[in-house]
Amino acid sequence: MKTEKPYAFRERLLAVHRPGLRDINRHADKHEFEVKNGASINILGKTGEVCKTAVQDLIDFMRISMGVYCRMAENEPQGTVTVALAETAGKDLGTAAGYKGFMLEADEAGIGIYGYDERGIALGIYYLEFLMSCERAPLLGIGSVRKKPTLSPRMVHSGYGLDEYPDAYLSRIAHEGRDAILVFTKDVNETPGGYLDFNDLIRRAARYGLDVYAYSYLHSDMSPEAPEAEAYYDHTYGRLFRECPGLKGVTLVGESNEFPSRDPHAAKGKYYETAVDGIPSDKPSSGWYPCEDYPIWLAVLKKVIRRYNPEADIVFWTYNWGSAPEEARLKLIESLPTDISLQATFEMYEPRIYGQTMGICADYTLAFEGPGAYFKSEAEAAKKRGIRLYSKTNTGGLTWDFGVIPYEPMPQQWMRRYKGMQKAHDEWGLCGIMETHHYGFYPSFISKLSKWCFWEPREDMEAVLARILGSEFGAENLTTVTSALNDWSDAVRHYTPTNADQYGAFRVGPSYPMAIDSVPNIPSDDKAMFGSRICHPNYTSTADARDSLLSVRIGDEIASIQTMLRLLNEGLSKLEAIANPNEKLKNLIRLGTFMRNSTQTGLHAKQLYVLKTRLFAETDKTKLAELLDSIEKLLRDEMQNAADTIPLVEADSRLGWEPSMHYMTDAWHLDWKMRQITSVLKFSLPEYRKSLAK
User: Fold this and answer.
1) Cystine design at 403: which of 64, 161, 374, 507 (Cβ 3.0–4.6 Å)?
2) How far apart are CA 110 and CA 139, in angstroms?
C-alpha cells in the first residue's frame, strides 16, 4: 500500500483537472461536435477577469484531461468554441436569464457558451468540462441546454487549511458551483491563525467569481444601547468594512458574538463567565438565548457596516438558540429588520427515536435529513416577515457525524436532504446556504452531486448521481458502487448524533482513548485553533430533559450503532469485491474502512461505558471478575482496531485530519492510543484484580 507524507492531500486539492481522461476510442458521431487540436476559444465582446480566467481553465482542461491543445482568441470572426455574454451575442437565455445563468449550444460548426453574466460564462465552461469528463472525450451533443442556480450565496470554509485559500483551491471551489468563501475574522486582516491580507484574498477570489464573507469573531463587549455604542462598533465592524470594502458580508452567530444583554432571560457575561463562585447560572448567556435586544444590536451593526458598504449582506444565524422556547425565537424574528438574511440550521434539535427511547440531534448530522421543526418554524416566520432565508445545510459533504474524514459518501441520504431543501426553496423562499463549518470544503463526488441538484430546470437526482458515479469510479462498476453507497446511506440513518458521540469517539475515531478510571486528553498541536479541546475523552452524557436518560437509552443506542456497523460492512464488502478498482475507488474503500473502524470505536465507547457503570455498582465478586474480563477483551479489540487503522491514514493523509484540530488520528496518535490502552492493561486493570482478591 502507498504511503503519504502529512498534508500530501493538499496536492490533490490543488490539482484542478484529472489527467488522461480521454478515451481514445471515443469519437464524435453525427449528433456530436468534437473539439480537436488547434481549436480556438474565441471571446466575443468586452469581458473581464472572470471570463478570461475561466477560458484559460478550459484550455488547461482540454490539454490535461483530453489531450487536446487549444488557444485563446478575442473577437475573431469564427472560433471553434465561442464565449460571450448572452446580451453581446444576442442570445435568449429564456428561463436561464438571471445570476450565473448560462446556455450551451452546439451545431456542426462549433460550440457556444453564453452567460447572463461573467460568472454564468464560467459556470457554463465548468459544465462543459463536466459533460466531457463524463463522456471521457472532448465532445458535446448537438443542441442546446440552459441552466441557472437557484441558491446564492453558497458559502464554504477552507478545507485546505483554516482560512487558507491558494488560487488553485479557489478554482476548485468555483468548479464545484460554490460562489462564496468564509474567513474567521477576529479583526482587520486577523484570523485565529494570525495575519491574513483580506483584500488580497478578496481580489484573488473575485478572479474565480467568488465572494468573501467574514465569519465574525469580533468582540461585542458593549451594550448596543450605551451612548458610545456606535463609536465602539464603528471601530470594529465599521472599520472592517472600511478597510476591506470588497467584503460581500458578515455572518453573525450567538456563541461568537455575545454582547451584554438586558434580557431578563439571559445571564450576565459570556457563556464561560456565567458561573458564580463555581456554581452554574440557571440562565443561558446571551449567545444561547434569542434576547429581546438583538434587533437593537443589529441596528447598530447595520448602521456602521453599511456606512462603508451599503450592499453588505448581514447574515444573522440562529444556531445557538434552536433549543430555546419557540415562542421566544419567533418573537425575535418578528422584531428583526427585513433587510438582513436570517440563517437557520436545517436539521438540528430534532428528536430521534432509538427503539423505545429518544435522543436529540445535538449538532450537524446526516442521520436526519431534515428539515427539522426548528428550521421550519423559523422559515415560516421569515417568509411572513419578508426576510431573506438562508440555512446551514452542510451540503459541502460533511457533518459532525465523523470529525476527521473529508466527506460522508452517503449520496442517497444526501439526496433526501436536497429534496427537503428544494421544498424549503419552493415553500419558504430558501435562497442561500452555508455548506461547511470549520471542517472545511473537500471536493468530492458528493459536492458534485449537490452542485447539480440546485439548478433550474431541475434534473432527476438519481440520473445525475449515476452520471457522476460512472465518471468517478467506472461505468462498469456503477451497479455495484450504487448498491454499496445505498448501504452506507442507510447506515448513517442509524447514527446517534449526541454530544457524547459527536464530541467523543466519532470526533476523532480510532485514536479516541479508553480507560477504566481517568481518561487522558489526546495530545494535540498547540498551533491548532481547537486541537483536542473539542473532543471529550471520557464518554458520558449530561442530563438534558429533551433526551431519554442515558442509562435508559444506551442499550437502544448500542443496537442502533450495531446496525450502522453491519450496513457499513455490507457496503464495504461489495466495493472490495470489485476487480481492478481505479485510484478513486481505492480511496473510497479506504474512506469506508476508516468510517467502519471509527464506528467500531464509537460502539466500544458505549459498551465500555456500560461495563464501567456496572463495575462501579456491582458487589458480587464473581460478576465483578467477569466484568473485568469483558473490559480487558474490549480494550484489546479496540487496540487492534487502532492498529488496523494505521495503514489507512498512512495511505491517505487527509484521513485523521481536520482544519481546526490538525492531525488527531494519524499514525502517531493511533500509536499513542495503543500505548495508552497498553498502560491500562499493564497497570490499571491488574490493580482492580488485586483489589478484588482482598
Assistant:
1) 507
2) 10
What are the tens digits of pLDDT across the range 610-665?
999 999 999 999 999 999 999 999 999 999 999 999 999 999 999 999 999 999 99
Question: Would you say 506 and 401 are in contact if contact means Cβ atoms under 8 Å apart?
Answer: yes
Backbone phi, then psi, for 149, in 5-degree steps? -75, 150
Identify which of 96, 92, 112, 85 has the alpha carbon closest to the alpha carbon of residue 148: 96
Give me the residue label for grid cell 474524514: 405
CA-closest candidate to residue 428, choices 344, 493, 520: 344
- Pairing mode, if any, of strands 351-354 and 357-360? antiparallel
Task: Tell me if 568 sits within 8 A of 401, measured CB to CB.
Answer: no
Report strand pairing: 190-191 vs 194-195.
antiparallel
For residue 663, how far is the Cα from the chain centroid?
A: 18
How far apart CA 15 and CA 365 sit, in angstroms, is 29
Answer yes or no: are the C-beta atoms of 625 and 674 closer than 8 Å. no
Q: What is the DSSP letter of 276?
A: B
Which stretches does DSSP call E strand in 562-688? 657-658, 662-663
DSSP state of 511: G
β pairing state of 313-317 and 430-434: unpaired
Nearest alpha-carbon partner for 300 in 230, 236, 246, 392: 230
What SS3 string covers 59-125? Answer: HHHHHHCCCCCEEEEECCCCCCEEEEEHHHHCCCCHHHCCCCCEEEEEECCEEEEEECCHHHHHHHH
Among the listed residues 618, 621, 619, 612, the one whose alpha carbon sits nearest the alpha carbon of residue 692:
621
Please check whether residue 58 is in contact with residue 128, taking contact to mean a CB–CB distance below 8 angstroms: yes
User: Which cell goes with 529?
Assistant: 485553533
User: Which three-class secondary structure state does DSSP give residue 393?
Assistant: coil
Cell numbers representing residue 392 in the block: 446551514
For helices 621-651 and 667-679, give the axis angle rounded to 10 degrees: 160
Q: Which three cell numbers stand for residue 314?
A: 448581514
CA separation for the pair 270, 219 (Å, rounded)? 11
Cα 564 to chain centroid, rounded: 21
Q: State how far the Cα of 522 lies from the Cα of 529, in Å rounded to an integer.
A: 15
Q: Which of 414, 408, 415 is nearest to 591 (CA)?
A: 408
Residue pair 616/691 in contact (Cβ under 8 Å)? The answer is no
Q: Which band of pLDDT confidence, cut at 50, 70 and 90, is reported for residue 1?
A: low
Q: Establish how many alpha carbons lie within 13 A of residue 71's alpha carbon, considering only the half-sphere containing its beta carbon.
A: 6
Of 369, 361, 528, 345, which is closest to residue 437 (Cα–Cα)?
345
Q: How far apart are the first and last CA of the chain?
A: 51
Task: For residue 87, count CB atoms less than 10 angstroms from its CB and return exposed for 0-12, middle for 13-18, buried for 19 or more.
Answer: middle
Tens-place pLDDT, residues 614-624: 999 999 999 99
Residues 42-55 have pLDDT tens digits of 999 999 999 999 99
Beta bridge partners of 34: 139
